[in-house]
Amino acid sequence: MTRRTRERGQPKVLVVDDEPDLLELLELTLSRMGLDTTRAQSVSEAIRLLDAQAFDLCLSDMRLPDGEGLRVVEHITEKGLDVPVAVITAFGSAENAVAALKAGAFDYLAKPVALEQLRALVKQALKVPEKPAAPSSYQLLGESPAVMQVRSMIERLAKSQAPVFITGESGSGKELAARMIHIGGPRAEQAFVPVNCGAIPENLMESEFFGYRKGAFTGAEGDRDGFFQAANGGTLFLDEVADLPLPMQVKLLRAIQEKRVRKVGATAEDPVDVRIISATHKRLPALVDAGEFRQDLFYRLHVIELAMPSLREMREDIPLIADAILKKETDTALPTGDKWPLQDYLDRVERAAINEALEKTRYNRTAAAKLLGITFRAMRYRMERLGIK
Fold first, then answer.
1. Rounded to two decimals, what is the model's pTM?
2. Does the N terminus or the C terminus of the chain have fewer Cβ atoms within 10 A?
3. What is the pLDDT of residues 282-305, one digit of tens each?
């Protein structure tokens, strides 16, 4: 029996732990969220309950009297149960968290359990789509075995919160894959924030990633959010992550581990709920061996790898891709000879210019407005008028 086969009512959560204090804390927090909890104090009891009842979520400690909580994760995966499972790990047990995510865990919590992180995790888990996501404008073209395998992998990764590391040659569609993972998952309604790590000056990286407070440095005339705050509740895509300098790698690692960030000039940290997807065309293991990329950060990012095929591996798809490109060029081509009314012609010219500016700035509307020589307010108005999303 799965979540799909029982009648929808009060969501049910299976909590697997043998520590009375932690069990009481989890049950109290979940009940205040309107959830029905069932407790299990061992691996064997948890497996028995999972086979007998339908649950919407499972929270399991990693250390139990009769074995590792990882066995609960593996059982859910092996049986194909439609139950997101998150694990609770001891502080600093990065290896356990990574192992659980690779085995199919939805996410993890570190002890001592922070209640705001627990609530955020539960909300995300209960939003996992039970049906395939509706078609979007972001689609991976091709019917070759290589593309079919990637498409299937993307569908599976969309249901997880595990960090994904996308590899592939330049132009192989790494950002497209990241967007599809985001759109197909429970964070689809929240922001997808792409960041080109190689395009940010080193002296601006901390403030760009984490934001800053007014007066933190010369020119900081007001508070400003960074990439992490902009992606809060959604997905942060770190493109060309291999280009991050070592000092920034340390700060990024801490933000990922603690799920908290501190703005430049601030005294306190703020919690953030962000899924990390990263990508590079470089061979990151070789950079780790050369001491140019931190091994601990590599293991945090490289939990599940998605390898994008090159065009050489999908030759049979070339005619299909070529036709799509030609169709796009035809659809977006500017009119000639004043075959349309003047206003339609001007709208098409303006729409093409705005789309080009957005693509060049990786869909940063502020930067695109600057490129076009207009204000952000004017940019927003024109996008709304022309129906550009």
1. 0.71
2. C
3. 999 999 999 999 999 998 899 899
